[in-house]
Amino acid sequence: MQECDAMQMMSSRISLLLAVITNFSDSNSNVEIVPTDCDCRDWYGTCRRRGEKWTDDETWNYECDGTNGTDARFVACVAEPPVKEIVPVGANVSIGELWHSCDANTQRLKYESDLVDVLSFFTRNLNEVNFEMKSERNLEPHCLVNGHVKKVHSEFRDGRFQWLCLETGRWVIGCYYSNETHPDVFLKIGEFGHNGLIKHVCDRYGDYPGRVQYYAEVRGILVSGPG
Quick one: residue 120, left, alpha or beta (phi over 0 = left, psi -120 to 50 = alpha)? Predict the structure, then answer.
């Protein structure tokens, strides 16, 4: 009889222990165990260490200055190529021919750049699980010269030639030469100038009227520079 009572008591204790373990497991099923080295979480949920800095998708700059797995802090946008300069959050800056802005609120991050009527913007919606990037460009023609953007109808010098940026591309509109009094004397296409015995000419090729040439004649010696 005593042996039977002991078996029943042991069985009850085992059942109670199993019930406690089961209840503990159920009540903590949604508790995340954060790694000890997880000071911040990035956009994709990856753990980052305090003091770490990084760029997401070549656009969004973050840094970790928290503890216990808090969200990383958004600090700046990265301007589009070929510039690649940093635009601090909340700032509006001009870089070359473009202005850039970087903005953030509780709903989204936003980077914009503008050239005349060219608008590019990238957004990251903070209330959605997945990253969303949008880009809208009303592509106004422009000229890209040595990595620099030139507006349509603007003039610029490149070497010996003066150029004009048009919607159809860039075109030579004149030439430069130097004399003893001035390093940059401008000639329109079809014009010429004299410097002593030297004649400087800016003209079109006879066989290729779409090309412009600069040349200098010195007592029968021809020095040319096609455009």
Answer: beta
